[in-house]
Structure formats: C-alpha cells, structure tokens
Amino acid sequence: MQIKNDCGEFSSSCTLTDNQLKIQVKKIFYHNYEPKENWPKLLEIMDATNNFIGKTIFLEKL
Known about the structure:
This protein is of the alpha+beta class and 62 residues long. The protein has one helix at residues 39-53; strands spanning 2-4, 8-17, 20-29. β1 (2-4) and β2 form a beta hairpin. The mean pLDDT is 94.
C-alpha cells in the first residue's frame, strides 16, 4: 500500500524470507503546518494509516 501527496506519504510492505515475516511501515509528514485547504490530503494519509492498523495477519504452523 502506498499513498503519496503534497502533505506526506504512507507506505507499507511485507516480505516472507526463511520463515520470517518482515513488515516495513513508513509514515512521513513533509511539513509541521498545513493550510486548511490541504485537509483532504492529510486525511488520505491518516485513512491509509488507519486502514493498515485495522488489518489482520493469520499465521499457520507448518
């Protein structure tokens, strides 16, 4: 999952190597202040973050 706009970015990825699940998450805000016109762009990043947090990973013993 990757979201990138003028306000910041959110990305997540996962890999499975040698029976190890590695999850990489990155959330970056480019500015410490955004005008109110950029609120929808900030919400895109926050919604992506919240959607990621709500995901579930099921692991099965081999």
